[in-house]
Design brief:
By secondary structure, this protein is of the alpha/beta class. It contains four helices and ten strands, in the order E-H-E-E-E-E-E-H-H-E-E-E-H-E. The longest helix has 18 residues, at 95-112.
Length: 224
Amino acid sequence: MSLLIRHYDQCDYLETYQEMVEFNSNQSASTEDEIWFLQHPPVYTLGLAGKTEHVLDPGMIPVVRSDRGGQVTYHGPGQLLAYLLLNLQHRHIGIKALVERIEQAVIELLAAFNLQGERKARAPGVYIDGRKIAALGIRVRNGCSYHGLALNVDLDLAPYQGINPCGYPGLQVTRLVDYGVQLSAHEIAVIFQPYLLRNLGYDASDARVIATVQDSSRRMQATA
């Protein structure tokens, strides 16, 4: 099955979330899989079973409840989001395998920068030296996935002090820039893309890429 990859600039979280839900609800057997690369303005998001007790001091940053898996996390400029709108039935991938494949793609990306990424049992995501650099939150409905991966590139880490990241008090987070990787989130998206496609079982020839558009509200108007 073919794949459409969309590279966006900064997009409002709630609008993007609503578009993912709409995309999932309107899928049919002929719907093309999509991956959206983007960033969000500052926002805390709570997963479907997220506990508000893990939101310690949000300050002026909005808190949005969503239907992804996982607890609370932070999104902001300088963090790369990869949202995966995939028909898992067509690809014969279960949610556990999907998480493992995304994690492996991040580990391979980090290895390209001579960094050792690691998994943790019962704590999805990717870590460097015990610090979380990539968080995952997935929802599968109608046999199709949405939400996805958040990879810290060069974002401000201070807002993480307002939460228990992913529901773990004292969990430390890190970012690529702390390890000398001086690239933007968009540049990392371009580098990361082939690792992600390969681990998801796509051939590069399967993918069509749409150039960066201003925001997610223009998604339906973009053309390949």
